[in-house]
Amino acid sequence: MGFITWIVLGLIVGILAKWIMPGKDGGGFFMTVILGVIGAMVGGYVSTLLGMGTVTGFNLSSILIATVGALIVLFIYNKVRS
Questions:
Q1: DSSP string of the chain, one letter each residue
Q2: Spacing of C-alpha 42 from chain mean position
Q3: Which end of the chain is more exposed for a tag (fewer CB within 10 A), N or C?
Q4: How far apart (Å, rounded) are the C-alpha atoms in residues 39 and 46?
């Protein structure tokens, strides 16, 4: 995937993760994108290790995998910040 695709996917996934796990995160738009991109990478890495697939672009399975990764990253981010 290209750089712009990772940013757009990160934005979508970051928004989904914050919607699923609301709270006082702070950071705004850029932190949402950063957490989403990192989450997509983490989700892709973990799902590849478990043999469940990878993040390959804009399809439903990639968005679900990336969202789970973003939820993991958001959870860790909230624990570290508090």
A1: --HHHHHHHHHHHHHHHHHHS-S----HHHHHHHHHHHHHHHHHHHHHHTTS----SSSHHHHHHHHHHHHHHHHHHHHHH-
A2: 8
A3: C
A4: 10
> How many separate domains does the chain show?
1
- The residues, any chain, with a CB within 8 Å of residue 11's CB and separated by 6 or more, are 32, 33, 36
> Amino acid identity of 3?
F
Rounded Cα distance, 19 and 2, in Å: 26
pLDDT tens digits along 40-82: 888 888 888 888 777 777 778 878 888 888 888 888 888 888 7
Domain that holds residue 45: 3-20+27-81
- The structure tokens listed for 16 are 């989904």
